[in-house]
């Protein structure tokens, strides 16, 4: 039976909601309004003169080959990071869910990477893979393997995919462990008695029960790869060499802060905001239906 808390007046509920409402207005509504206002203007590099240009900034982005390439690059990056991070998280969760000695210690160690800040993670990999002083780079050089992400765009793009996926594995691991623990043991025991074992039992019995968790993680990982990897990418490659690792969120910073194209950068921000709102809406809509069914 559902229980609800009833308030006698309207003042107390308003006071309880006010802090969250203030945070939402201050850190989301106002910046979103400012971004949209700037996206329909053209501003000089010094910010002294502005003029209304309507949707000209958006039309320029639609015709820009650089923006289209950044869009494709971001799509490939998001898919690769999502697949690698989720696959690794699922495999580790399956092994950690088994009745083995020291299981709690293994789970704790696997969660630790998620607590590392993206910029710190980039610094760690710089010490490991920097072309001149990197420990792993020097080892690869002794083996005759030339690795230099500072000049090789393909290697740099592959590197940020691997680091971003590694950073997100722990998040997926947590949710998959929780999902595996919610699977009724009676279902697993019944499947075992029917002769379903190993991968066949996982594919036919356990994996379908993890579908809601998987869909939730797909959306979360896409959002993470598209928006939360800025610090990681910028600290490691700054979007280079050239534009090899310039995703949409890095391009917003480059165009707005470095190139001082405020209107174009704001238009890109509005597009990014529309994408994340759309992904979030899909997540809530689909997850709600799955929960009801």
TrEMBL record:
Record has Membrane as a keyword: yes
Q: Which residues form the ABC transmembrane type-1 domain?
A: 71-283
Q: SUPFAM superfamilies under this entry?
A: MetI-like
Q: Does the keyword Cell inner membrane apply?
A: yes
Its membrane topology, per UniProt?
Multi-pass membrane protein
Protein origin, superkingdom: Bacteria
Q: Which locations, inside or outside the cell, does it occupy?
A: Cell inner membrane; Cell membrane
Give the stretches traversing the membrane.
Answer: 12-33, 74-96, 108-129, 206-227, 266-286
Enumerate the InterPro entries for this protein.
MetI-like, MetI-like_sf, UgpAE/MalFG_permease
Q: According to its UniProt record, what is one Pfam family this protein matches?
A: BPD_transp_1
Q: Which UniProt keywords apply?
A: Cell inner membrane, Cell membrane, Membrane, Transmembrane, Transmembrane helix, Transport
- Subunit structure, as described in the record: The complex is composed of two ATP-binding proteins (UgpC), two transmembrane proteins (UgpA and UgpE) and a solute-binding protein (UgpB).
What's the stated role of this polypeptide?
A: Part of the ABC transporter complex UgpBAEC involved in sn-glycerol-3-phosphate (G3P) import. Probably responsible for the translocation of the substrate across the membrane.
Q: Which family does it belong to?
A: Belongs to the binding-protein-dependent transport system permease family.
This chain's protein is named sn-glycerol-3-phosphate transport system permease protein UgpA
Q: Which organism is it from?
A: Acidiphilium iwatense
């Amino acid at each position: 039976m559902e229980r609800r808390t009833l308030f006698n007046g309207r003042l107390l509920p308003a006071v309880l909601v006010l802090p969250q409402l203030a945070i939402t207005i201050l850190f989301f509504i106002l910046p979103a309004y400012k971004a949209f206002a700037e996206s329909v203007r053209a501003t000089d590099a010094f910010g002294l003169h502005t003029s209304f240009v309507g949707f000209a900034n958006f039309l320029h982005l639609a015709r820009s080959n650089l923006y289209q390439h950044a869009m494709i690059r971001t799509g490939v990056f998001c898919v690769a990071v999502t697949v690698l991070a989720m696959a690794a998280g699922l495999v580790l969760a399956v092994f950690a869910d088994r009745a083995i000695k020291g299981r709690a210690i293994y789970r704790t160690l696997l969660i630790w990477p998620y607590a590392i800040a993206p910029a710190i993670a980039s610094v760690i990999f710089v010490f490991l893979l920097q072309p001149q002083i990197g420990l792993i780079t020097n080892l690869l050089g002794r083996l005759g393997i030339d690795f230099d992400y500072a000049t090789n765009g393909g290697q740099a793009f592959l590197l940020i995919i691997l680091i971003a996926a590694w950073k997100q594995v722990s998040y997926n691991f947590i949710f998959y462990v929780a999902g595996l623990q919610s699977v009724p043991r009676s279902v697993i025991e019944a499947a075992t008695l029917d002769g379903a074992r190993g991968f066949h039992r996982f594919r036919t019995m356990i994996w379908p029960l993890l579908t809601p968790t998987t869909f939730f993680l797909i959306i979360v990982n896409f959002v993470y790869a598209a928006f939360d990897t800025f610090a990681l990418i910028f600290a490691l490659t700054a979007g280079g060499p050239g534009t090899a690792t310039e995703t949409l969120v890095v391009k917003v910073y480059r165009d707005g802060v470095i190139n001082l194209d405020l209107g174009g950068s704001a238009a890109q921000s509005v597009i990014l905001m529309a994408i994340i709102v759309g992904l979030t809406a899909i997540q809530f809509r689909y997850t709600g239906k799955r929960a009801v069914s």
